[in-house]
Fold dynamin GTPase.
Amino acid sequence: MFATAIIGGAAYLQYQAVQAGTYAIDIFGKVKDGATSTASGLWEGANDVFAQMGRGWDKTKEDAGNVEMPQWMRDIYEGRGSSKEGGSGGGGPEPKESNIGAAGAGAATAAAFAMDSEGEDDTRSEDVAARDDQMMMLTRKMIEIRSLLQTVEQADSLTLPSIVVVGSQSSGKSSVLEAIVGHEFLPKGSNMVTRRPIELTLVNTPKAHAEYGEFPALGLGKITDFTQIQKTLTDLNLAVPEKDCVSDDPIQLRIHSPNVPDLSLIDLPGYIQVEAFDQPTELKTKIQALCDKYIQAPNVILAISAADVDLANSTALRASRRADPRGERTIGVVTKMDLVDPVRGAQILKDRNYPLRLGYVGVVCKIPQESRSLFSRGSANILNAITRNESAYFNAHPESFGESSQVLTGTPNLRKKLMHVLESTMSSSLATTSEAIHHELAEATYEFKVQYNERSLSAESYLAESLDAFKHSFKGFSDQFGRKEVREIVKHELDQQVLNLLAQRYWNRPVETLQPLDKLSESVQDPLESLPKADPENPLWHLKLDASTSTLTKLGIGRLATTITAQSLQSSIQSLIHNSTFSNHPFAIEAITQASENILRDLSFDTSDELEICVKPYKYRIELDDNEWKRGRENITTVLKGELHDCEAATKVVEEQIGGRRKMKDVVSFIDRVRKGDVVLEGDGIGGAGGFSAALLEKGKEALFLRDRSDIIRMRLAAVKSRQCSDKKNKYYCPEIFLDAVADKLTSTADLFLDAELLSKFYYQFPRVLEQHFRQLDDSTIERFAREDPKIKRHLDVVKRKELLEHVLKEMDSLRQLEAREKRNSSRGTQTEDDGRRRRKGWGLF
Ligand SMILES: Nc1nc2c(ncn2[C@@H]2O[C@H](COP(=O)(O)OP(=O)(O)OP(=O)(O)O)[C@@H](O)[C@H]2O)c(=O)[nH]1
């Protein structure tokens, strides 16, 4: 058993070490999963640090500093062109022969741009497609960094920009977002259903077939049914009370799909013109204030306006003009293009009144009616239906929307534009964000050093340490609490039982009533004073001792001894808990208490029955040797002295309650005289008598009882010490000694048995059950447990913050390496017009 314990312990220690090590990894993993496998290993090495994390923290650290390029990218950098074995868009159809090159290099973006949807050919050149892929990779990395920063306690300086979607009610905001995602998932209804910002992170998962959403803050897991996502969003929004109507507490939603680009978007409540009669009067200004908060720099504004409403009246454009007067970070989206004349539509997109550097995009995002019935429910993707419908419309009017028209139309182009814009905006924000992270990290590092002496801590390591310490103190306790201690407990209990038996059968003096003694019980007629001189054959004294012995042996020693030993163990566990770090953790107190109770209860059943069988022979015959008699005599002397001492102490208390020795003497002598018949009471004395109140008489009876008991004990102490009681053959004259010796015999059997059956088994099982219990806890429970202690919570927060910030900086480093390679590649002569446009100021400064 010992060997197994050691092996088990070592394995657990190892487990704990791994747990502690993977603590940070898990956190990072939470903000990034689902994108870990790709069609061609596209992101492996270069981008997906998260995927590497699964291989261990050390490996991750190593890799983060040494970012590996995927083959296809190296080929591009080394001028070998694109690899035809490059990734495919996962769930999408096979690329057409003429496009195979582009499909190889740019397939990752092809699906994300919705270019492989039916009716859409990828007409990009190889270089452009490859660069799109690379851009997507950079964007993804930045979004990862953004998500990581979201998990750090929020400070405004620690964010990367996002795309904020604003527009009036019914302008088509939801339709645009749903067209980008390919699913109906946003709350719908007339009752102002968007009440909170929805922070939507789209994660492109090229190889995965399943599309799903996650609410990281809710822990609902992966939701593949988009109507369920819609329902959850609706519930979360409607939970904002009618009287507040809007809240700035964002809902975070991540959607993973092979058909979405990597994007981070924020959907906001739609602007209203005027409050409805049942809406709060300040609602319009509240929505405005909320939107204004989000459309500040460096966020990109996606201003949605419907084509059938004059752009001059567009609330979204008016708001964006206030926040972005030079139109540098606003993308104008004109929805419902199908509702206006194509010529008019094209004019709108060329708007010169509010020129936008990022331009306007016209879209038709309505889900065709026939498709709605087919796709609207569950998890079917509506992307193809929308893009087909949309391109049919734009293709039908080439004079207005064709290549020569110089207007940008269509959801795929919008998606692409969003990715490009987000990437470039994020990259220009990196320098300032990086500075802010360095600053925050310096603060966290200082606190870590000064407050916590650089002692690393994770919820798992804290639990493991606490558990180890507790098991260690339990081991110490188990070394000290053995057979001897059980013996003391059991013997003490049986001593009390012996005293009770003696009091019942030998020492009984009736004091419950105020009555003359001659009317009372037999024991008074055979006073104990007469015992030393009684006839050795007097059956009364034989009967008394035999009956007392029988009562003692048939007391249910099995149950009694097992129960008090288990209780003692249980209370020792409680004090061990309260002297351990677990004392600040109600959850752990409950778990440990429960574990010990369960084990003790289970063990007690069998133990008590078996112990009862072991003491059975004593129920029929008890033989004592001289030594046992001698030991009994010594022990009962101590017990009687203890009892005498207790009686005297109790007498003192009663004396104080009565009001002094003198008053007590008066009451006691009155009751004495009544008992002797010297005073005859009228009535029963219940209402008081002899000038004493009823309460005083009650106390007097207590004092008399204690006095009588003290007298008897003194008398019996003298008897126990007498020559008569030195010999075991005089047992009927010395019941105290005999009963003590019997109790001693019972105790010896009990302690031996309890030591083997209860203690040993408990000592073996308890630490293992604890270990098992704590080992199977899930991460969130362990985290909750550790955070119950405010000091530990603070410590954990500092460690976590520091680790996250360090990790973010590392991610930024690898991003910088990728960017440097991109620059090298550009300078090797593959520079195109497109490259020039994509080179950004600020990139590489951080
Ligand atoms: N014909 C046409 N109808 C559209 C288009 N886009 C959206 N709609 C319709 O316009 C209505 C409003 O669209 P939503 O996407 O719900 O607009 P919203 O801005 O999200 O509205 P709120 O959630 O109320 O703020 C819906 O009935 C859509 O079907 C479009 O391009 N063409």
